[in-house]
Design a protein that fits this description.
Blueprint (H helix, E strand, L loop, with lengths): L3 H6 L5 H10 L1 E2 L20 H4 L12 H8 L10 E6 L5 H8 L2 E7 L3 H10 L4 E3 L8 H8 L6 E4 L4 H6 L8 H16 L3 E6 L10 H14 L2 E8 L10 E8 L16 H10 L7 H5 L15 H9 L46 H7 L12 H10 L3 H15 L4
Parallel strand pairs: 1-7, 2-3, 2-5, 3-4, 5-6
Antiparallel strand pairs: 6-8, 7-8
Helix pairs in contact: 5-16, 9-10
The structure holds S-adenosylmethionine.
S-adenosylmethionine binds next to helix 5.
Length: about 400
């Protein structure tokens, strides 16, 4: 049940409140140039000085991307210095990336049991919470976590919440309450920081009203210091064009900047490869090589007519019958989709073979290392991968959050 003060907070903010809110939300620094369609000027830029790493004369390897993924091994997850509660965890893309940045998932919570199974089987400190988020309380979460000292709560609530948030009666719809519930839990648990991620459509749906309402609610409910950015995975050397809006809040006022370049294991070679390719991004072919025998690599059998159709589609073109895109091997792929067909799109067509990509191939484009195995049915696996934040994008943001938390008094 929402309290009356929450109802007040949910009124669309007045123009002056809006201005204050904009001033409180510190956008990422403006970029000079991005090939991946920064509309709001918040994407990373590349310039000659920055992309040629100093003191590193090593040329970019033929497949710097797979070498980088291989360097993100499970051993990096031992002894995480920070505690993380993950809500709406899905298959764990956000969790995995944040774990590499030192945030050990203590609670992995999602209403879909198979998704939670993926997280707890892959992340060594994660404990399952297979409940509807609307039923969660501080007591329940901290009991599972085994501590009340939580450094970060991260979540990407389902996107439909926002398309109905601004509509009349939206709060009576359970989906409309999920994002708000997330900020209620932040106010209760009071972690050092929170991370909220979503699709870029959030910024424009309902003429931006839902985003303003949500950000105002986050600010009023938590009192945290907020920062947001719109980041594209391709700018961080992930071979996929995928944008995410990220809102980060801190309990204390500390300096914080969003990442602008790939960092960590294998980053120098990726930065060099991006420079060599004149900012065209990492080719999807790099992600799709050497997959035979890996887990989650069951190939979907198509009938002869579909195979014949797929065979004729040019790389980068679309099949007119089922609206599936064929990957261009020379470019980053389009956004990896959930693959259900029922409104969530379908898996892309393989660049060379007349078939859709497998779960493992989609996971490669999303920057999941090969040791990360997805549980559940094939449909559930495609959904987990298609819904995920690319782990290496989450890693970059996590590193910056860890840095900022280190500055807490
Ligand atoms: C966009 S996905 C999250 C993806 C995840 N952040 C990642 O990086 O892999 C949203 C998730 O919210 C979950 N969800 C939807 N309704 C829920 C509810 N009422 N309670 C808990 N989880 C819910 C879905 O099962 C889905 O896994």
């Amino acid at each position: 049940m929402l309290k009356s003060q929450d109802r007040v907070a949910l009124k669309p903010p007045s123009k002056s409140a809006d201005k204050t809110l904009r001033m409180n939300l510190v956008a990422a620094q403006p970029r000079r140039r991005s090939l991946f369609k920064s509309k709001n000027g918040t994407l990373p830029f590349w310039d000659a000085e920055q992309i040629h790493p100093k003191n590193d004369s090593k040329p970019a390897g033929a497949n710097a991307y797979l070498a980088r993924l291989g360097a993100f091994n499970k051993g990096l997850l031992d002894k995480p210095p920070f505690t993380l509660i993950s809500l709406f965890c899905g298959g764990g893309g956000l969790d995995l990336g944040l774990s590499f940045a030192g945030f050990g998932t203590r609670v992995a919570s999602d209403v879909a049991p198979a998704f939670v199974d993926s997280v707890v089987t892959n992340l060594p400190h994660a404990r399952a919470c297979k409940e509807d988020a609307l039923e969660l309380t501080k007591a329940k979460l901290c009991k599972i976590a085994g501590t009340t000292n939580i450094d970060l709560i991260a979540a990407g609530p389902p996107c439909q919440s926002f398309s109905i948030l601004g509509q009349r009666g939206a709060l009576a719809d359970p989906r409309g309450k999920l994002a708000l519930k997330y900020f209620d839990l932040i106010a209760e648990v009071k972690p050092k920081a929170f991370l909220f991620e979503n699709v870029p459509g959030l910024l424009t749906v309902n003429k931006g009203e839902d985003w303003r309402t949500l950000a105002a609610y986050a600010k009023q409910k938590t009192g945290y210091h907020l920062h947001f950015a719109r980041l594209n995975a391709a700018d961080f050397g992930i071979p996929q064009i995928r944008e995410r809006v990220i809102l980060v809040g801190f309990r204390e006022e500390v300096p914080f900047d969003f990442p602008t370049l790939p960092s960590g294991p294998g980053a120098a070679a990726i930065i060099a490869a991006l420079a060599e390719r004149d900012g065209q991004g990492i080719p999807s072919a790099w992600a799709l090589s050497d997959v035979d025998g890996l887990p989650n690599h069951g190939i979907r059998e198509h009938g002869p007519r579909v195979r014949e159709r797929y065979r004729k589609i040019e790389p980068g073109a679309r099949d007119r019958t089922d609206h599936t895109d064929r990957i261009d091997p020379e470019r980053p792929s389009g956004t990896v989709l959930v693959g259900s067909g029922g409104g969530g799109g379908r898996p892309h067509i393989h660049p060379v073979e007349p078939r859709v990509i497998t779960v493992r191939e989609a996971a490669r484009l999303q920057s999941f290392p090969d040791w990360y195995v997805f549980q559940g049915t094939s449909t559930a696996q495609y959904r987990q991968v298609g819904n995920a934040v690319p782990p290496l994008l989450a890693y970059e943001v996590g590193e910056k959050i860890a840095e900022a938390i280190g500055r807490f008094k």
